[in-house]
């Protein structure tokens, strides 16, 4: 099935998994968590420890972060695609979220719809903020069928702020030329999508 809040596409498996996880909360706690996530979206900040207080010991830290990302996705994508509350309610219940829980989420969504759409128009929502990128190209010597070969390898180090955990992080990885070409093409496509979305 295709869903409006997913941009007319099938619902991703990870969203389905998180809907099941969110169903474990009471509808009252889900409403409070949705309210907190909505305020975090509008303010561009989120304190994971405060969110943990809302759910108590129902979720481990990893489950909570995944559920927050799912709520951010549902709320922002629904607003981006101008999904009305009743349609969102129907789609969430079709995906297995109990009706009482879906009603709680949709109530928060409807109450903040105008502020959320204004926020999306003014800025691109990000779970992470890139600080800087360092890269180098190394010549790696390998042996293939008794012949020495020299292959270029790109190493990259990304430093970014994780807005969910409110801390700076970094990740390093290496790519061969073919992998780097794919990454570059994907990044250029993502940049174009963001530009087009910002203009809409």
UniProtKB/TrEMBL annotation:
One Pfam family from the record: COMM_domain
Domain COMM: 129-198
InterPro entries hit by this protein: COMM (IPR017920), COMMD4/6/7/8 (IPR047155)
Domain of life, per lineage: Eukaryota
Protein name, UniProt field: COMM domain-containing protein
Source organism per UniProt: Rotaria socialis
Lineage, broadest ranks: Eukaryota, Metazoa, Spiralia, Gnathifera, Rotifera
């Amino acid at each position: 099935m295709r869903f409006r809040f997913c941009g007319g596409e099938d619902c991703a498996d990870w969203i389905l998994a998180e809907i099941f996880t969110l169903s474990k909360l009471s509808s009252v706690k889900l409403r409070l968590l949705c309210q907190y996530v909505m305020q975090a979206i509008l303010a561009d900040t989120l304190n994971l420890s405060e969110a943990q207080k809302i759910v108590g010991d129902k979720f481990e830290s990893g489950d909570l972060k995944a559920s927050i990302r799912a709520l951010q996705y549902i709320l922002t994508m629904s607003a981006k695609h101008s999904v009305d509350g009743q349609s969102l309610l129907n789609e969430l219940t079709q995906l297995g979220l109990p009706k009482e829980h879906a009603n709680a989420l949709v109530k928060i969504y409807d109450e903040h719809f105008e502020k959320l759409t204004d926020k999306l128009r003014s800025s691109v929502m990000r779970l992470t903020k890139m600080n800087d990128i360092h890269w180098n190209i190394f010549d790696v010597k390998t042996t293939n069928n008794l012949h020495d070969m020299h292959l270029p390898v790109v190493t990259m180090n990304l430093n970014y702020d994780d807005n969910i955990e409110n801390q700076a992080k970094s990740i390093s990885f290496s790519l061969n030329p073919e992998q780097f070409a794919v990454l570059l093409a994907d990044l250029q496509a993502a940049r174009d999508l963001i530009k087009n979305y910002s203009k809409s």
